[in-house]
Amino acid sequence: PVLVVDFGAQYAQLIARRVRESHLYSELVPHSMPVDEMLAKDPQAIILSGGPASVFEPGAPGIDKRIFDAGVPILGICYGFQVMAHELGGTVDRAALGEYGKTHADIDHAEGLLEGSPAEQSTWMSHGVAVEHAPKGFEVLAHTDGAPVAAMQDPSRGLYGVQWHPEVRHTPLGQDLLDTFLHRSAGLRDNWSASGIIEDQIAKIKAEVGDAEVICGLSGGVDSAVAATLVHRAIGDQLTCVFVDHGLLRKGEVEQVKHDFVKATGIRLIAVDAADDFLTALKGVSEPERKRKIIGEKFIRTFEKAQRQVIEEAGAKGKEVKFLVQGTLYPDVVESGGGDGAANIKSHHNVGGLPKDIKFKLIEPLRTLFKDEVRAIGTELGLPDSIVWRQPFPGPGLGIRIIGDITKERLDLLREADAIAREELSKEGLDRDIWQCPVVLLANVHSVGVQGDERTYGSPIVLRPVSSEDAMTADWSRVPYDVLATISTRITNECRQINRVMLDCTSKPPATIEWE
Ligand code: XMP
């Protein structure tokens, strides 16, 4: 693998992902892993990530110097670059000028790591510490106003470093730099593809499951559909999918999922109507994290209850369901505080929202993947576009789109408004431009309106169309005014309790995509 050594960077996983976009398998390891252990993984190349520390502060995370003599090509990025410079005898100091965001870099030598680079590059930086002098044997390739050494290399030892972040899209030539490092400097050949991931996962799942019975919590979305299809490839009829109708689904969703999924995959599916159960448990609850925890727990209890039926349908008398498949993705893990040292932003229902006493062992074949990788795998597995390109819909469903407590009436109202918005956006062919468009009911807010010559006092609906690459960051979509106007008119006409429609024009960050 290509090892990405994580120094606590926000972007470490992004580096791993970009390496995969260069068609090479990557693994993330903590900087605290002993160097011998890293080398035992037989890395083809190593990338040292950025991180929040300063190398000269006491207790700053470093790395055993021996790694630089192991004969493995190494690229240091930002903090990782400074660690390399520091450990090998260069000088690193507080920068005369901190650089945050878009930064202009002058390329002094367009060779090696920067082969083919124009004389100037726009780069994305985030540093208040700089490498003043490169270690002996290194050639300085670039500088900026705040970084006398912004890129350096010693090809004879296979060591390279850059101050800027090649992994973010804001560095336009960043992917080129990573490509150059991996394919030219390190001389690696492609080894990562959707078909490779599939083979790998199938082998892993087979080995783990043996002849046990497995259920998969299917939501109808691309993640659980791909996870189920992968597991089905591995173990065939030992898999039963369970689709829980928790009463928080959108209009027509139950029928549509049942029909589309079974038709596309032929996997055995049981639908469980648990709406009353969920709504009772959620009664009077308006705090978002509590809602998420309750829903996460209820999902598991519903799967547990469905066990007997699953065993019956599977014709597996006397056996037990041992495993539960979930379509958890990496962003869910990170945002639920599951990444190393990451903060808990919200408890995604299938990660942070799970109860501690689960009777099943979890199988999460997509846990290290990003959405675009999952979509590529779905296509490779032969799933139709209607599933692969379905917009994301959160497991807790409309439950986290009613701001306030959840009632049947509010759900019905939101379902109608949501159906109108979806219908109009699809009609305009915007389904792929828009990553997803949550429709949110501000149930506790009331404003005065006039409808049919009468005063009304109703709740607003918020439209939250966003564009995104991976849901980790997002921008609000510039939906044409005409389309917004149609949606607004239809919602206020057809849903009498709604007298205002608002547009959420906030990116992520600072907001998240869902309101709760
Ligand atoms: P946020 O709101 O965190 O959402 O910016 C990022 C993406 O994740 C979806 N989401 C969830 N998906 N279970 C899921 O399966 C959850 O609990 C959950 N919460 C948010 C959200 O729709 C967006 O695509």
UniProtKB/TrEMBL annotation:
Pathway: Purine metabolism; GMP biosynthesis; GMP from XMP (L-Gln route): step 1/1. Residues 192-390 form the GMPS ATP-PPase domain. GO terms for cellular component: cytosol. PROSITE patterns: GATASE_TYPE_1, GMPS_ATP_PPASE. The active site is at 78 (nucleophile), 165, 167. One of its GO terms (molecular function) is GMP synthase activity. The keyword Ligase applies. The keyword ATP-binding applies. It catalyses: XMP + L-glutamine + ATP + H2O = GMP + L-glutamate + AMP + diphosphate + 2 H(+). NCBIfam families: guaA_Cterm, guaA_Nterm, PRK00074.1. Catalyzes the synthesis of GMP from XMP. This is GMP synthase [glutamine-hydrolyzing]. It comes from Bifidobacterium mongoliense DSM 21395. The lineage of its organism: Bacteria, Bacillati, Actinomycetota, Actinomycetes, Bifidobacteriales. The gene is guaA.
